[in-house]
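Protein modeling request. Please complete all fields; requests missing the sequence field cannot be processed.
Requester role: graduate student
Desired output: 3D structure, token encoding
Chains: 1
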Amino acid sequence: MKPQPKAPSGGVLLLAVLLVLAAPTSIESRSASGLERAFDSFRLPNSTVPTHYSLYLDTDIHAGIFDYTGNVQIRINILEATSQIVLHSKRNVITQLHLRNSAGLEVPVKGFEFDEEKEFLVINIGTVLQPGSGSYTLDIDFTNSIDRSDQSGFYVSSYQDDQGVTRYLGLTQFESVDARTSFPCYDEPGIKTTYDIQIVCGIDYHARSNAPMLGIQLLPDGKKLSTFATTPRMQTYLVAWLVSDFVYEREVLKDPQLAVTSWAEPSAANRLSYSVDASTRFIRAMEEYFGEKYTMNKIDNVAIKSSDYAAGAMENWGLVTYADNTILFDPASQGENQQVQVVTIVGHEYTHQFFGNLLAPKWWSYLWLNEGFARLYQYYVGSISHPELNLRERFVSGPQQNAFTSDGSPTIRPMTYYTETRSGISGLFDRIAYDKSASVLRMFSYALGEQVFQKGLRYYIQQNKASGVVQDTDLFASLEQAAKEEAVLPVTLSMFDIFGSWSNQAGVPEVHVRREGNEFFFTQKRSYTAPQEDPLGSSWWIPISYITSSNNLYETRPAFWMPPGTSEVSHTIPLAEGELVQFNPLSTGYYKVIYEPALLDEMIEQLNKDHRVIKPPARARLIDDTLKAAFRDGDNYETVFKLMNYLRQETDYVPWAIVSQNHKQLQALLRHEQQARWLLDTFMAQLAHPLLERHGLEPRKGESATTTELRLMAIEMACSASEACKDKARASVAENQVPRNPTEVAIRCIGIQRQADLQQRQQLSTKLARMLPELQDTFSRLYANQLLTCSGDEELVLQTFVSKLPTMSEADRAESLHQAILNSGISVKKVIQQIDSELRQRKMQVNQSALARTLEDIAGYVTGESEAKLLMSIASQLGVSSSAMEDMEQQLQANHRWVLRNVGPLTVALSEVVVV
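Delivered output (916 residues):
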């Protein structure tokens, strides 16, 4: 007798629980004959399919016991005659297994096997199951543990309460293929069904899951049973639960009713309000924008200690989890920049409630249908729900810039890409799935017109939500329907062909433009980071937009579609004498523009005369496209610096954000080239000094996030050119308290690195190392860690900093690496060796995807052959996916070639523009 997911009465349930706890049984877990068939694919055989799960878990996390027991009953249908049932299971110890038919009668089971490579549980049946023979119930008892180090599956986290007592909690992170590590299941994204979930936990703890709670029943020994409503049809990677003693803040919306709740450890209770407000505003704006109501009547946000949560955030249907430093907000000490973080991360995960949850990808090949939409609309719906944050303007310097940076690699994958293995699937969660896909979707939103694109997305949702499973052609069909209805596409063009040219090809195009009178000639080719021929002859359907002072009709809409496979296309643009034309003027198209020298000189002349004539996104792209072309070719730096000279008058966020990113990349590549590095930093300080003078050194109450970030960029680039900044940095060295914001961190780091002597740096680093374990506030820990990375104490930084790298957000990791390697001079080789050492000693909590991303970030700083070999050797030993290995190898080769090709010309060009 075992506990049933829907107990008829309290007495029956109590007896069942006690019997299971008192008398576990087991069966033979290996069949005598071995596997009855060979599996040549990592995909499940298509012979059975689940139609419902009833999952029961019994935990003792409240008592610090990490083992748990479970029972899963899976109702299945037979699709083809079979004597085997194959599903996924890993880490689960199966103690009982039964199969019953629709009448409840036992079906003989010969035994079961585990295919460890493919992570299959193969159940051999004593008869042949026939299609149409009714449903069957697979009934499995199992045990498992949350004591694991990879921050995946069902695992343990902890915090210290105000008495210094360690409190434990259990949470789930199943995407992409880790539901199977917590309970046996059909763990593929295109398989959707419903779930009934019950969880036993301590009386002082609580359980949360995807669906609303139906009720709580008290059990013996200080425990209780929580029963949840049936979920919507969903895939296994969205199944989620939390067992904790967290506190919460809630707001209940009406018409229709929706309870929005944020949960966190008790010390963070005063930092939950903004996330609740941001969530309610975003979800209502999202529902209106897409013309679809959220499915359930509750949605929870859960803040997990960032060092215990490598995933960053996860869109579990109705129970969304986040690293705490992305969602908590303290109005007393934090400004709008943290509000931007909260709104965009909530927006990303909430957009997934439609794109990814309601509409699931048929296979991981179409992951971009989840992540591209979530990345785009965290900014674009966020700009509707929170217009005060100016989120749309951040897309160009954020996701689009990230995509351009990644898409120049010759080994980069296309958006739609097939793979089956665990490591291969993990590798799909990259900038292509998120940032490139979002940039391509954004391009089509502008090319078709936002209202037409929105209409197409509403069709996409309505036409596919019944099946709940989609692939790329479903999106193309819905967009084509809207485009044809509104006549925004030429009749000869199809969305299948146009969009397919972007989703099925790797790389980003660059469009070269030349002029003869009013006739403009366009050619396209694939853009690479380093000089290289394109072996595939890639080409795209490109929407060419432009603007002149007398014509803004094609500012975002295409004047024409540049076809693939054509050597050159011409287009007439009537221009008055001296009239300027800007192509892709708002950077709405996902392509680079390379102007012939005469046209580029006209743009530079206009920038230095009145830069405001050219829109900020176009200024940003002009700088980046021209600079990246110089990087690739190793020449034309004189023109680049002539272009950048106008920055002394630049006040907008987007161009400076692009410049700052390029500056940091150059610093990384020049870290062994002292003269070139000094000339670069001096040049940038001269350009950014007016910006620093404009914004000053102190944050002002009520200022925007963009102003805060502009000040931070100016301090980082131009403090050496400001006596006031140097004085403040010098004085900050003696301060004892932890910095309260990123600006204070930046100024004190400059003071430590440039003004403090060796003894002061050692004293500071020792004090920070002692202080860190005692800091309970997540942001105090973050700022103290960043301060430690710039202290220059190599041994201490390595010991305290390296183990945290895989758990940091992308932005925090980038900043911390920059401080440690560039400003403190920590050896990249020692960083790599420390990662290897800590992993071997299992000190580091490892999530494979986060580890791969960390090693890829470190690769950006490697220019020497010995460091490159060491990094690749360790990445291989640690099981990094082959695709990530290829990307790293290309990055390392590109870095080496860049130094050989660029240091000389860059040094000469900088020597001519730097005023000493």
